[in-house]
């Protein structure tokens, strides 16, 4: 529901916030400065969104103001300052507060690092990215709480609109990351990007190439963590930004038809899957698994005469693509990447298990391969159901629930999840007097496969007997 704002709008602070902001205003007065609360804190307070990060701008030395504020607390909070940027940060009363002197900026075409010089509040507001982030509230005693709104940001809050204060071409050329921030705010707040502003993003999209990958990926992750990530991802696609920052994703888009047979648009299918899983979990890496689950479909796509389109092996190829994509996007090369890779590789397995006459052996193998990530895998599989046919969706979900029940029953009986065979490689080497070699691996694998196939029980006695029988086939004799 849209919120109504009045021109005489004041920001409503909690008692603790008002006490803190009046103290900051008093410190500024002692330094002979004007100071204002500006940007995201003001916006979010007006929208009724929780926020604990505040930006303070003053017409003077921001570091000196931070130090003056810190002296008013016992014990004094540490002042973290960045002399080159003229900024300082303190954490007090459960809030992170950043101080900076009002400034004006100018940019070169080949860099997003501005030449900065002292400026007025008005000049500082001019350099802000969007009108809704240019709102400022006076903290000085004389005008405490007075709202400054030079670009009609209140109207844009009311209209749920993202708009640049100055000409979009200038705003985005000055700092190209603002293009991704516009899309991120649209996704987070569910706001519409003004047509002229969005056209500015389309025209300036190539400028994103001068921004570091880390900054781009940070914005991309924030879009992925928004309540409905498809909003931001679709805007990235339509603006042309996605093809520059993540071309493998745009390769999913479109439908090809041969002999009257077409495949679904895998880009928009993927967006549906991300939204589906986002309703179930805030976990960033499960959302990335949803984003990448079909990433290899463009490179595995094949038309078979009389049959139609196939994407054979896309889960295997997709799994191989995950580490490269994570490296490309400067995402972590750790267990988070390995989780996404595993889920992409396994995302088709539960579908095959939803058919009738599936053996316990197949269930054991999935439990063994998925381990503790089996619940995440099932969540991804359920999110992958995007049919508009509600009857078909219900049938798939009911089938997956039966798979869950079978998995629980097999796990309770066999304890296969995160299981290791009861006979280790070291035990085999000791039994037969072998060094590390292929025969040791062959025996260990044979024991594991026999247990997973249900040929022997998951216990030492049966595994040991099986090992001895298998060893005879390999002409191995125990040394004991």
UniProtKB/TrEMBL annotation:
Reported cofactor(s): Mg(2+)
Keywords from the named record: ATP-binding, Magnesium, Metal-binding, Nucleotide-binding, Nucleotidyltransferase, RNA repair, RNA-binding, Transferase, tRNA processing
Residue span(s) of domain HD: 266-377
Gene3D superfamilies in the cross-refs: Beta Polymerase, domain 2, cca-adding enzyme, domain 2
Family annotation (SMART domains): HDc
Pfam family, one: HD
Family note: Belongs to the tRNA nucleotidyltransferase/poly(A) polymerase family.
Protein name in the entry: HD domain-containing protein
Organism from which the protein derives: Compostibacter hankyongensis
Lineage of origin: Bacteria, Pseudomonadati, Bacteroidota, Chitinophagia, Chitinophagales
């Amino acid at each position: 529901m849209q919120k109504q704002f009045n021109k005489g709008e004041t920001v409503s602070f909690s008692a603790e916030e008002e006490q803190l902001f009046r103290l900051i205003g008093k410190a500024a007065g002692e330094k002979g400065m004007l100071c204002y609360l500006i940007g995201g804190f003001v916006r979010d307070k007006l929208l009724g969104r929780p926020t604990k990060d505040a930006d303070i701008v003053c017409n003077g030395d921001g570091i000196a103001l931070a130090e003056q504020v810190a002296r008013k607390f016992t014990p004094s909070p540490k002042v973290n300052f960045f002399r080159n940027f003229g900024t300082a940060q303190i954490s007090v009363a459960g809030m992170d507060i950043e101080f900076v002197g009002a400034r004006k900026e100018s940019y070169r075409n080949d860099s997003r690092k501005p030449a900065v010089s002292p400026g007025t509040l008005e000049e500082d507001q001019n350099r802000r990215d969007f009108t809704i982030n240019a709102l400022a509230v006076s903290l000085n005693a004389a005008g405490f709480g007075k709202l400054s709104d030079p670009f009609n940001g209140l109207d844009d809050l009311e209209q749920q609109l993202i708009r640049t204060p100055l000409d979009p071409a200038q705003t985005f050329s000055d700092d190209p990351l603002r293009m991704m921030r516009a899309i991120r705010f649209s996704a987070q707040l569910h706001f519409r990007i003004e047509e002229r502003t969005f056209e500015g993003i389309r025209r300036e999209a190539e400028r994103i190439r001068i921004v570091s990958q880390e900054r781009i990926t940070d914005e991309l992750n924030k879009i992925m963590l928004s309540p409905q990530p498809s909003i931001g991802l679709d805007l990235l696609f339509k603006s042309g930004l996605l093809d520059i920052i993540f071309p493998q994703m745009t390769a999913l888009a479109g439908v090809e038809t041969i002999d009257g047979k077409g495949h679904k648009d895998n880009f928009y299918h993927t967006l549906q899957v991300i939204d589906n899983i986002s309703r179930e979990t805030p976990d960033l890496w499960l959302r990335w698994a949803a984003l990448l689950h079909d990433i290899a479909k463009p490179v595995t796509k094949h038309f078979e005469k009389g049959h139609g389109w196939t994407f054979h092996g896309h889960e295997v190829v997709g799994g191989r693509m995950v580490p490269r994509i994570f490296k490309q996007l400067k995402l972590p090369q750790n267990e988070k990447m390995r989780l996404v890779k595993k889920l992409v590789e396994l995302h088709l397995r539960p579908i095959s298990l939803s058919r009738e006459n599936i053996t316990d052996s197949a269930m054991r193998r999935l439990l063994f391969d998925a381990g503790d990530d089996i619940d995440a895998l099932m969540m991804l599989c359920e999110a992958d159901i995007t049919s508009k046919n509600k009857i078909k969706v219900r049938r798939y979900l009911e089938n997956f629930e039966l798979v869950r029940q079978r998995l629980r029953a097999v796990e309770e009986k066999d304890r296969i999840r995160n299981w290791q065979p009861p006979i280790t490689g070291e035990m085999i080497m000791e039994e037969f007097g072998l060094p590390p070699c292929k025969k040791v691996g062959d025996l260990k694998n044979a024991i594991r496969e026999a247990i997973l196939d249900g040929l022997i029980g998951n216990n030492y006695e049966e595994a040991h007997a099986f090992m001895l029988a298998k060893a005879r086939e390999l002409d191995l004799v125990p040394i004991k």
